[in-house]
Amino acid sequence: MKQLNEIKIAGVSLPLYLGFVVVLAISIAMGNLPLNMLGITFMLVVLGHLMYFIGEKLPFWNTYLGGGSVFTLLAGAILAATGLIPKNVISATSTFMSDWGFLDFYIAALICGAILGMNRKLLVKASAKFIPISLATMVVGFFATGLVGMLLGQGFGHSVMYISFAQMAGGMGAGIVPLSKIYAAGLHTSAGPILSQLAPATTLGNILAIIGAIVIAKGFSSTKYNGHGVLIHVDKDDVAKKQPTLDAAKIGVGLMFAFTLFLIGVILNTFVPKVHSYAFMIILVFILKATDLVPKPLEETVVMFNKVVMTNLTHAVLAGIGLSMIDLSSLAHAMTWQFVVISLTSVVSMGLASWFLGMIFGLYPVETAIGAGMINNSMGGTGNIAVLSAADRMEMIAFAQMANRLGGAIVLILGGLLIPFLH
């Protein structure tokens, strides 16, 4: 018993944690799990920490297949696909993640904490180089995917519009859902069938991006190309920062400040609907940090809030993505070898392009390839979390969101312009 108590999952002894799991399993089996904030949060936190723990302990998987992050995503998707978690619970999880704003809660804390906790000189210098690289990478991915699709008999137009753009659109809600409506308007048809063609590419692109990020991070972990989460070469003194001691009252202040910035983004989005709330929030926080307008004590409160959310909810978010946003059945249905090769072309070509552009612009190639190449093939905010978590690069969330939102907006505009000619 003493040995079992020494095994810890998220700081909880194994016997006690198994007690949590038993209570969760009984409540789900009896149909008594409250389908509200309490029940869904408990389920995601318990399953997320457990699945991450298992993934980190599995031989081979923990070294070559992404460890806990990928295992949590995959295990969640399998639980949903096999019916071990009932459909009403899956539906409530999807609502909780999106409509009830659990992802907004997590991402607001993540972005604000990541930017405000970053060195100001590093942020300004890296952004000026990273954004052009990200956009140039998308151009390379567009033409590479189209040309390979043409060689495989799938057509240039079909490959770029239904695979390349689907992977670069920035996810589901802010990506392929509006993209399908734009295509439908241009083709004078309904959006439903178009969305069903776009979704498998978005899902597979995200899975391949996760694998690609892991390969890059692991393969070049001990080389000069690795910035260990930092995009640009800087003095160690510039990035070394003392972590503030957690203070319950100050964490509450950080929460209020982060959510205020998010709500300003929401307000601005009502005036300019084509620019996502996240994008407005990133711009606002970036300006505040670049101009040094936020007092250091207030900055520290947001960094504290970010740390608490990251520590306790990252695995829960991964479990929620797996349960409610990765549809294994639709992916399996679309899985032809040509489809896989074209999807892989987008990921590989963008990874290589961003790697070499990063070297030319003086950025760390590992971080650039993950932050521009892999992230631009991910499912928006949720996909960014999955990719960065798997590569152990969560400090890059601000750059990831920047690339994803800007790139996604450009894809939506180009999609409307090109669909009449390339369908």
Automatic annotation (TrEMBL):
Cellular compartments annotated: Cell membrane
Main location: membrane
Domain of life: Bacteria
Record-given protein name: Citrate carrier protein, CCS family
Pfam family, one: 2HCT
Regions that span the bilayer: 12-31, 37-54, 61-85, 100-118, 130-153, 159-177, 198-217, 248-268, 275-293, 313-332, 339-364, 370-391, 403-422
Keyword set includes Transmembrane: yes
Similarity section: Belongs to the 2-hydroxycarboxylate transporter (2-HCT) (TC 2.A.24) family.
Cross-referenced InterPro entries: 2-OHcarboxylate_transport
